Amino acid sequence: MHGLGAGWRSWSPVLDALAESREVIAVDLPGFGETPPLTGEVSIATLTDSVADFIREQGLDGVSTAGQSMGGRIVLELARRGIGGDTVALDPGGFWSDRELVVFGATLRPSIALVRALRGRLPALLASPVGRTLLLAQLSPRPWALSAETVLPDVRGLADSPGTGAALDALTNGPKQQGAPAGTVPGRVTIGWGRRDLVTVPRQATRAQALYPDAVLHWFERCGHFPQWDAPEEAARLILDGTD
Hints:
Blueprint: H1 12-19, H2 44-57, E1 65-68, H3 70-80, E2 87-90, H4 98-117, H5 122-126, H6 129-136, H7 148-160, H8 164-173, E3 189-194, H9 204-211, E4 216-220, H10 227-230, H11 232-241
Parallel strand pairs: 1-2, 2-3, 3-4
Helix pairs in contact: 1-11, 2-3, 4-7
């Protein structure tokens, strides 16, 4: 499960590595990619409902789940509900303090407005190391080192996805993530966090682990909010090691 942005294409940097030894189903959440938006309330609960329905309809009971950012929060919510098998959550949302949540909304909303205003120029801007540095400093500690091919789908998705605004409202205005007492999740839980994440800041990892005491915490060094950007090999290995 992806976060705000490109839909399933957000996982492109790691899909081949995962598919070498797993059957991989990368979904577009409602309002992203090719999945139409929800017709009713948009919340983390209803987005999770849509994934739970998909799992049931496709006969995927017990499937391992992996998610990043908003998708990381959704897979943890699935685990809390007892749905799925092993769970890997990368830099999940939902564990911020009240002040951190205000900063999250106040910084991300202008960033989204900027990429929408620049949507026609995004390919040219992201083709330049300077352009990547200016646009992606909040998302990666080394944006100049990333390729335009890696980052363009997510940045363009932030600008174009019809579900971006509603999903961001759900993250900023909805309740924080609930936890799962020890022994209540259906499989192993692994939480990966970038030590230089400026979106879901590293101190939130302590709260996430306290709420999910069965979880194993893995730190990505020199990594921001997108481990699949900054450390794709390490991210793929963590997902493979953390799933059956």
